[in-house]
Amino acid sequence: MKSIVQYHFSNEKYGKTLLIDIVPISEINKYIEKEPTHRLTFYDMTFITNGNENVFINQTELHVGSGDVICSIPGEIWSWPKQTAMQGYVLLFEEEFLFSFFNDKQFLNKFKYLKHGRTSPLIRLNKKLFKNVVAYLEQINNEIQLGVSSSEHILRALVYLILALLERGEIIPVKTINTFTKEEQANRHIQAFVKLLDEHYLQSHDVQFYADKLFITVNYLNRMTKEYLGSTSKSFILNRVIQEAKNLLNYTSLSVAEISNQLKFETPNYFVRLFRKYVGMTPNQYRNK
Q1: 0.85 cut: is pTM over it?
Q2: Pairing state of beta strands 5-7 and 37-40?
Q3: Is-contact 140 158, C-beta < 8 A?
C-alpha cells in the first residue's frame, strides 16, 4: 500500500505570510478527487451548508449534512467520497496563528471538539446558530481577500468568536471501526506524543524522554513524526519550545538569558543560535521588531 498523501498549509497565497485561510468545499474537490484519503498537518474545520454524505476521520465514520461542522486536528487522516457533492466552507489555520496571540499553550485543547481524546469530531448546530457562524466565515473571507491589507487581529477575533460559538453545538456520537490498521495505531501514538509535549516541553527537549513515555523507540517516533507532522521529532519539539520563547519575548520583560534558563537551554548562546535558525532573527531582534 502506498503512503498516505500529506497536505501542508500554504501560507503565501495572499501576498504576505498568513496562517489562516478559508475556501469553499468546491475548491478542494480537485485534491479530494486526486487523493480522497489524505492527512493534514494543520487544523481543518469544515462547515456543511448543503448536501449529505459519509466522511471518515481516523477510521471514524461521520454521517454529515447541512448544519454540521467537522473538526479536524493536525495529523488526522481524512477519507472523502471521491466526488463529493456537498457544499460549504473549509476554515484552515495553523496552531501558531492563535498561539502567537493567546499566550496559552493549551488554548485549543480547551475546546471540547478539538481536545485530545475527544469523543467525536462532529458538531451539529441549530439553524440560527449555523447561520450566524456562516456570516462570520464570510467576514473572514472578505478580510482575507484584502491581501496585504488584511488585519490578523480582526481575523483572530473572528476565529475565536466562531470557536466559542461552536461550544454551543451538539457533539454527535459516532461509530468507530474497530479494526486497527497500522496507520491508525501510528496516529494514536502521534496524538499521545503531541499531548505529552504540551505537558512536558518546558522540562525536556529530549526525544528519548517522549519515546520512553510512549513505550516506543526513538526511531519509530521519528518515522511517525516525519510522516504525520512533516518533521523530525526533535524539530517538532524545538518548534514548540521556540513558540513559547516567542510568547515570553512578546508578553514578558524577561531577559534573553532568563528565557533561555526557563526553557531549559544549556546556555543563552545556544538558545540565541537556535532561535535564529528557526525564526530568522535573534531573540532581541524579534522582540524589537
Answers
A1: no
A2: parallel
A3: yes
Q: 91: domain range?
A: 5-176
In the sheet that holds 170-171, the strands lie side by side as 20-24, 87-93, 43-50, 68-72, 122-124, 170-171
pLDDT per residue as tens digits for the range 64-91: 999 999 999 887 878 888 788 899 999 9
Q: Look at the chain and report how many structural domains it folds into.
A: 2
**What cell does 237 get?**
519539539
Return the C-alpha cell found at 285: 531582534
Give the CA distances from residue 141 to residues 22, 73, 164, 208, 278, in Å, rounded to whole numbers and listed in that order.
Answer: 6, 21, 19, 43, 30
My answer on whether 96 and 136 are in the same domain is yes
Is residue 57 domain-shared with residue 133, that is, in the same domain?
A: yes
For 226-262, write each residue's pLDDT tens digit: 887 778 999 999 988 998 898 788 778 889 999 999 9
Cell triple for residue 97? 496563528
Beta bridge partners of 64: 53
